[in-house]
Request: fold
Amino acid sequence: MSEAQVFFVHLENAHQMRRSLLGAAKGVLSSLRKAESVRAIRAEKLECILQLKKKLDELQTLGRKLRNILPKTNMKPELPRIREMPKAAEMPQVPRKNKLEMLEEELAKVERTLTEIE
Reply:
């Protein structure tokens, strides 16, 4: 075919089709914007993690230096005692109600309020 021959395609509801195409393009652009913001947040997170690692390494070296400077002793620090939890056999048993019993109690309450209103 030569360049002189030009074909036109008739579109039904061309205005509506153009509107839907523009809406789709708008959706793609908003998705790209969100993806870019996620990339920026990830880069910032990575930078913060690297800074944290550097500070932790620095703290470790300072802690080692402090331990080397302090005199060595055989004393162990006294830790606070942790209160023991009562065993299951010692705990009082609370009667559990199933859903049917709970619903019956609620129904009884509603009936009582209805009789009081009348």
Observations:
- Residues 14-69 form the longest helix (56 residues).
- The two ends are 92 Å apart (CA to CA).
- The mean pLDDT is 85.
- Helices lie at 14-69, 99-117.
